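Q: Could you fold this chain for me?
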Amino acid sequence: MTALVVLDPVIGSYLGEPGCADRLPDLSPEGHDERAALARRTLTALATAPTPAAESERLCARLLRERLNAELALHDAGEHLRRVTTLGSPLHRLRKAFALAPTRTQDDWHALARRLRAVPAALDGYRACLESGLDKGLPAGPSAVSALLAQLDTWTGSGTGSFHTLAANAPKALRTDLAQAADQAVRSQENLRTWLRDTYAPRVAGAPDTFGRDRYRLWSRYHNGADIDLEEAYAYGWSEYHRLKAEMHDAAQRVLPGCNDPWQALAHLEEHGEAIEGAETARRWLQSLTEQTIEALDGTHFTLAEEVKRVETRLAPEGTTAAYYTGPAMDFSRPGRTWLPTLGRSRFPVHNLVSTWYHEGVPGHHLQVAQWTHVGADRLTRFQASTGVVNANVEGWALYAEHLMDELGFLTRPDYRLGYLQAQMLRTVRVIIDIGIHLSLPIPDDAAPLPGKKWTPPAAGEFLRRNCARPRTFVDAELLRYQSNPGQAIGYKLGERAWLSGRAAAHTAHTRHSGRFDIKTWHMAALSQGPIGLDDLTNELAAL
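A: Sure. Below is the predicted structure, expressed as structure tokens.
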């Protein structure tokens, strides 16, 4: 981990490591090669290490081996040379690194200025990767490039970007220095945008927007920690779609008596349902919701350490399109944080916020990640407690957390429950579309909009619009997410299925042997295991 933090100081920022806040990683092909070489050395050392005796060491060794092999498979295929996406690209990681930077002391602000001055070199390295990809015949999808250009337009808006906001919040004596560094960082973004628009975009104009089965399998393994049976997962997505559709119709009538259309009921909630006025008021409301949830669950369904109970809700940086979570520092000097994107809004309907905050905060991402941090010193390695994350495990837990809150009666309000079911439907549609478009699978005969045809991005966009009560801009952004980041979106529902299957198996085993299943004990044991891929998750949970 120490060697990895040297090569990637953004990871150090997530961990709260000292001496990282003023640096950025080398995003050039050479920088990627260095990190790949470290992974190969680590795998060689693992191959010659003694068989682990402790259970925690066994899980760590298996996770480390699987994660490094998945990363190297992507590297060897040259995926880093065409990494253009609207979520999770190197550019997005850099932006989040600044949001995590400490700003308590003058030294912190000086470090932040040095990190801002490192942005041009980092972006030059990213551009070098994309140039190398062009030379090797590895283009990114043109739709993803267009979307990233639009994001760069937002990020570099005159004096309103997140870098300028950082500078404006600096102590008065340092504000000029920070403003100059922010100007340099923004100019480097503008230069990258110009190159992407004038040089890169024309050269990838004829490239496909979808990945195909072979590339999809590489990314699916990376995001899910398993070689997914893609046809089975596609069929599961359709079965969940029909189940949820029936539940949504029932819930719609509770929101709007006599209404048999859930999308009409959701539109009614958007316009006439309970809403919060003002971004700061919404932030405070969500902070209070989180604190109330902690109080209700601690001692009944979870046993929470004091440091785990500390979580902050913050407003997300300008240009952020979705809510997200960032974990605490390893010593909890920085708490876990949930981030609310404002998207220029001043009105925030609550029906689609409640289950989202259960997902991002408590009992979702925050409880899992903060518990890993809490038990890390005694039971987990730093790798397990921080960077060894498997997307399907964490997103699966967060979706399980929403399901749990529904089970426990926290979503009985008709508007809350319809909002929850809408979120579940979105995650289900993701499974269908994400697999369908990249593998060009057939659309079932009873499905709109093109029964009996094969999935294409336009068909996927129409299907998503019919099954998502969100604005056209959201639908377009979602579709681009699936096209440019394959295999990630399926992890929510497939991970939730693994968590629920593991709990059901553990419940059966405990009931058979002792006549009693203690959900609180099981939750804490499950949350203390550290990250596990879908290859092993259900079996490991069943054995608890």
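A (continued): The mean pLDDT is 92.
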